[in-house]
C-alpha cells in the first residue's frame, strides 16, 4: 500500500503545482495580449448583467451600430432580459418594418413583432458590400464569442483607434487600431465621446459608450448566462452536500473496522 500512497501523493503534488502555474500564468497571458480590462459586472461565477449599462448599450447599437451591423440571431423579445417592459419591446419592434406576404400573395411589409429577429440594415451581403466599398460588416449577434478575448477584445477595438506609429504604411481606406490584428481595420472609428445622449444622465465618454455596448452585445450572445450560473451554483452546493453525507455514512459503516 505504501508505494501506491506515495504515487498518489506525488500525483497530488504535481496537480497542485500545475494548477498554481496555470493561475500564475493567466495574468501574464492577458498582459501579453494587451487587452484592456475595464471590469465587467457579468464576470465570474456570480456575475450578473448591469441592466442600466445594457440598456444604454442597446441605445448605442440602435443609434450607431445598426446602421451597418446586424443582429441576425437576436429577437426583439430578448430586450425584456435587459429590463425593458413588454410594452417597450413592442414599441421598439413596431418602429421598423419587416418583409411579409400580403393577402394577395404579393411581397409586402408590416411592423415588426417581438417574435421577429432584429431587422438587418441591408437586404443581403451583396447590398452591404455595395454600400460600404466592398467591406462586409460582421454580424454582432455572437461577436463576443467569435473573437478570442471576448468582451475585452471588442472593447479594445472600439477604444483602440489612434494615429499610426511613425513609419507605418497604411493601406488605402484603412484605419489604425492598436488592438485589431495587423493594426489596420477598414471600419472607421464608430464611437466618439458625446455621440449619444443618455436619458439616465450618465456621461457618454468613449470608454463608457464602449463599455455599455459591449455589455449589451454580451447579453445578446449569452441571454441565458445568469440562469446557467444559478443552476451551476445549485449543482455545486448539491454535490458538496452529497459529499458530506457520503463521508458521514462511510465513517458510520467503517466505524467498527480496525
Task: Describe the fold and architecture.
This protein is mainly α and 258 residues long. It has a domain at 34-74 and 117-245: Cytochrome c-like domain (Cytochrome Bc1 Complex, Chain D, domain 2, Orthogonal Bundle). Helix content is 47%, strand content 5%. The chain has eight helices and four strands. It has a two-stranded antiparallel sheet. Strands 3-4 form a two-stranded antiparallel sheet. A hairpin with a 5-residue loop joins strand 1 and strand 2. Helix 2 crosses helix 7 (206-221) and helix 6 (150-159) runs antiparallel to helix 7 (206-221). It starts with a helix and ends in a 5-residue tail after the last helix. Mean pLDDT is 85; it is low at 1-33.
Defining key terms:
disordered N terminus, two-stranded antiparallel ribbon, mainly alpha, Cytochrome Bc1 Complex, Chain D, domain 2, single chain, two-stranded antiparallel sheet, 4 strands, globular, 258 residues
Question: What would a concise description of this structure say?
Answer:
This protein is mainly alpha-helical and 258 residues long.
- Could you give the order of strands across the largest sheet? 1-2
> SSE order, as H and E?
HHHEEHHHEEHH
Q: Got a strand count? A: 4
CATH H-level homologous superfamily name of the domain at 34-74 and 117-245: Cytochrome c-like domain
Q: Which CATH C-level class of the domain at 34-74 and 117-245 is it?
A: Mainly Alpha
Largest sheet: 2 strands, antiparallel
Low-confidence segments, given as residue ranges, are 1-33
Report the mean per-residue pLDDT as an integer: 85
% residues in beta strands:
5-15%
Number of helices: 8
What is the CATH topology assignment of the domain at 34-74 and 117-245?
Cytochrome Bc1 Complex, Chain D, domain 2
What CATH architecture of the domain at 34-74 and 117-245 would you give? Orthogonal Bundle
Large-scale geometry? globular
The class by helix and strand makeup works out as mainly alpha
Determine Rg (CA atoms, Å): 25 Å
Provide the helix percentage: 40-55%
Cα(first) to Cα(last) distance is: 16 Å
Amino acid at each position: 500500500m505504501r508505494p501506491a500512497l506515495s504515487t498518489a501523493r506525488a500525483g497530488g503534488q504535481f496537480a497542485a503545482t500545475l494548477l498554481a502555474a496555470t493561475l500564475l500564468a493567466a495574468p501574464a497571458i492577458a498582459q501579453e495580449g494587451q487587452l484592456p480590462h475595464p471590469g465587467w459586472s457579468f464576470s465570474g461565477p456570480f456575475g450578473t448583467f448591469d441592466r442600466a449599462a445594457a440598456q444604454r448599450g442597446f441605445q448605442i447599437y440602435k443609434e450607431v451600430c445598426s446602421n451597418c451591423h446586424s443582429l441576425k440571431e437576436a429577437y426583439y423579445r430578448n430586450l425584456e432580459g435587459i429590463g425593458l417592459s413588454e410594452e417597450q419591446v413592442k414599441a421598439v419592434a413596431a418602429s421598423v418594418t419587416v418583409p411579409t406576404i400580403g393577402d394577395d400573395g404579393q411581397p409586402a411589409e408590416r411592423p415588426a413583432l417581438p417574435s421577429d429577429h432584429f431587422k438587418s440594415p441591408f437586404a443581403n451581403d451583396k447590398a452591404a458590400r455595395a454600400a460600404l466599398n466592398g467591406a462586409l460588416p460582421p454580424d454582432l449577434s455572437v461577436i463576443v464569442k467569435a473573437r478570442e478575448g471576448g468582451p475585452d477584445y471588442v472593447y479594445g477595438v472600439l477604444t483602440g483607434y489612434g494615429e499610426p506609429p511613425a513609419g507605418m504604411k497604411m493601406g488605402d481606406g484603412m484605419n489604425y487600431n492598436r488592438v485589431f490584428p495587423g493594426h489596420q481595420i477598414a471600419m472607421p472609428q464608430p464611437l466618439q465621446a458625446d455621440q449619444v445622449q443618455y436619458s439616465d444622465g450618465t456621461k457618454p465618454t468613449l470608454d463608457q459608450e464602449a463599455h455599455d455596448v459591449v455589455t449589451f452585445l454580451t447579453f445578446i450572445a449569452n441571454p441565458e448566462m445568469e440562469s446557467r450560473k444559478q443552476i451551476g451554483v445549485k449543482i455545486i452546493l448539491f454535490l458538496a452536500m452529497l459529499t458530506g453525507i457520503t463521508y458521514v455514512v462511510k465513517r458510520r459503516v467503517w466505524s467498527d473496522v480496525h
